[in-house]
Write a structure and sequence with these properties.
The chain is α/β, with parallel strands linked by helices and about 600 residues long. The protein is built from 20 helices and 27 strands. The strands form five sheets. It has an eight-stranded antiparallel beta sheet, with helices on one face. It has a seven-stranded antiparallel beta sheet with strand order 5-6-7-8-12-13-14. The chain has a five-stranded parallel beta sheet with strand order 19-18-20-21-22, with helices on both faces. Bound molecules: fructose -6-phosphate.
């Protein structure tokens, strides 16, 4: 999730863009850059680190020129360093591009472009776009960009300028946000509204597949069929803080809503639906021979990341047939785990800075155990110290309660388990295809569930007087019951306990009465009947049941007081769907109780003390 700003008009493009980028810094901040066209030449300034580093570069080498594009980066492909910072140029330094998104077929395209004589300067997927435009350029930047994008698969929001066809910016969008700001004899592009609020409130939201041509005094938009179209101009009335939250009341809600995009971006370019394979070998160097002989996987993490690890154990054991253990990081090193060269330790951490998790990673390394980190923050301690790292591509998570990072972590675990199942030949070709087909459907199913927002908020309202909750799930949804309970307690301060539904009768059932609502994950699965029996047990003790159920399930309606119906998807992917209503339920409970949702009491986003 990077930030883009572009400007064409009579002001100093460098100044307007830098100001806009500062307003987008919440989208990413590991490097930044700006390019302007001046007297037929490109002038570029880039730097690693937060935007104040770019400020310093611009103070010593100011940019003149009144047309330009800029970018603040949240790294996905390629480390945070100056060469990987945007903007990226073609071979002749005439065309320049800024990009937000993931190009899925970048390796295939990169190899073709290299054979065609193009020289690459960075490790990014973005650079292929500028070389593709160069390949198609014969005087008209709009045509060349349209042709280039027809070869690209993936998600993108783009800004392009060129010295040989100056006086306009080309902008394009596909599965990544991009808006156009309309001014008086000046126009703008930006990833998000806050960047443009000081300059204009008249904005156009580009639609999927749109390509726009911006001149100082004119904007033309073409749809995916290259037909010129008119898009509605909206008048934005939000203030800056409202705009940073995308109009949502809290960052947590915004981040819940960003999950379809975060999941999609995390698997794009790593999963090929047609070929039924994954491309993780480009990112992690774990020898096939090691994968085949691996004795065990230790998964170590804290909090929400630990819950993702519990789902991971299920996936590694069921898909890749590798024994796996999951540990809470603060316990791991005190129980003397048997670590050796034949085992792999996976640590999961959104921040990559959690002290207990880092200590576990160091212990594994000291014992010569192979290590892999699953992180969201590029350049974090865990990502630097682990032998291998796989990033979730969720963008910065600002709400203290983790939401999109959790579903991003699950997505990476599914990818790994699938990749290793393929390498260890533990799945039939038919099963592999079936899993990949289902995987592709996850983002749209999550979007469908988000449409139940109002229904879930009304349900939450009915329960605000309750002080204790029980969350039940079984099998691969037991960790989701734990996660649902954690979300509720951390933001609404209501006591909630997650339990394996079948274990309830061994103790917690004693707690159930009319004052203890029970949230049960009862979506269709191989053990659905068993979950129904657990529901009966809870009801017999006076418990009020809220069931997560699969659309079309009439039986559950007769057995429970409240139901949240979810779309059907293979049971394997149910954790990615079932957690969404739980996040929304906890969020609305906290809102109705007047709690500080984004910064709950006593908690910190990154726990860097043991
Ligand atoms: C809960 C939450 C925490 C974190 C935990 C680990 O919503 O956010 O439980 O999951 O502190 O943090 P990371 O993943 O950064 O290591």
């Amino acid at each position: 999730m990077c930030g883009i700003v572009g400007y064409i008009g009579s002001k100093s493009a460098g100044e307007v863009i830098l100001d806009g980028l500062h307003r987008l810094e919440y989208r990413g901040y590991d490097s930044a850059g700006i390019a302007v066209v001046l007297n037929g030449k490109l002038e570029i300034r880039r730097s690693v680190g937060k935007l104040n580093q770019l400020n310093k570069v611009l103070e010593s080498r100011p940019l003149k020129g009144s047309i330009g594009i800029g970018h603040t980066r949240w790294a996905t492909h390629g480390r945070p360093c100056e060469e990987n910072a945007h903007p990226h140029t073609d071979c002749k330094d005439k065309i320049v591009v800024v990009h937000n998104g993931i190009i899925e077929n970048y390796l295939e395209l990169k190899n073709k472009l290299i054979s065609g004589g193009h020289r690459f300067k960075s490790e990014t997927d973005t650079e292929i776009i500028v070389h593709l435009i160069e390949k198609h350029f014969s005087g008209n930047l709009l045509n060349a960009t349209q042709k280039a994008l027809s070869e690209v698969r993936g998600a993108y929001a783009l800004g392009v300028i060129c010295t040989d066809d100056p006086d306009h910016i080309i902008a394009a969008r596909q599965d990544a946000p991009l808006i156009i700001g309309l001014g008086e004899d000046e126009n703008f592009i930006a990833s998000d509204i806050p960047a443009l609020l000081p300059y204009t409130r008249k904005m156009i939201f580009l639609e999927e597949g749109d390509i726009a041509e911006l001149r100082r005094n004119k904007v033309r938009i073409f749809d995916k069929k290259k037909k010129e179209v008119k898009r509605q101009v909206k008048n934005i009335t939000w203030d800056r803080v409202q705009a940073e939250k995308g109009g949502f009341k809290h960052f947590m809600l915004k981040e819940i809503y960003e999950q379809p995009q975060a999941i999609r971006e995390t698997f794009l370019g790593r999963l090929n639906p047609e070929k039924g394979v994954t491309y993780l070998k480009e990112e992690i160097k774990i020898a096939d021979s090691f994968l085949k002989s691996m004795s065990k996987i230790y998964i170590v993490a804290c909090g929400t990341s630990y819950h993702a690890g519990l789902v991971g154990k299920f996936l590694f054991e069921n898909l890749s047939l590798i024994p796996a253990e999951v540990d809470i990081a603060s316990e791991f090193r005190y129980r003397c785990p048997v670590l050796d060269r034949n085992a792999l330790t996976i640590i999961i951490s959104q921040s990559g800075e959690t002290a207990d998790t880092i200590a576990a990673l160091r212990l594994a390394k000291k014992n010569k155990c192979n290590t892999l980190a699953i992180c969201n923050v590029m350049g974090s301690t865990a990502s630097r110290e682990a032998d291998n790292v796989l990033y979730t591509r969720c963008g910065p998570e600002i709400g203290v309660a983790s939401t999109k990072a959790f579903t991003g972590q699950l997505t990476v675990l599914y990818l790994l388990a699938l990749d290793w199942a393929i390498k260890r030949k533990t799945l039939t070709a038919k099963k592999r295809k079936e899993i990949i087909d289902n995987f592709w459907e996850v983002p749209s199913k999550v979007s469908e569930i988000l449409k139940k927002d109002k229904e879930i908020s009304s349900l939450a309202k009915e329960f605000t007087a309750k002080r204790d909750f029980l969350y039940l799930g079984r099998n691969l949804n037991y960790p989701i019951a734990l996660e649902g309970a954690l979300k509720l307690k951390e933001i609404s301060y209501i006591h909630a306990e997650g339990y394996p539904a079948g274990e309830m009768k061994h103790g917690p059932i004693a707690l159930i009465d009319e004052d203890m609502p029970v949230m049960v994950i009862a979506t269709r699965s191989k053990i659905y009947e068993k979950v129904l029996s657990n529901i009966e047990e809870a009801r017999a003790r006076g418990g009020t049941i809220i069931a997560l159920a699969t659309e079309g399930d009439k039986e559950i309606k007769a057995k429970t007081e409240h139901q949240i119906y979810l779309p059907h998807l293979d049971e394997l992917f149910s954790p990615l769907l079932n957690v969404i209503p739980m996040q929304l339920f906890a969020y609305y409970m906290a809102v109705f109780l007047g709690c500080d949702v984004d910064q709950p009491r006593n908690l910190a986003k990154s726990v860097t003390v043991e």
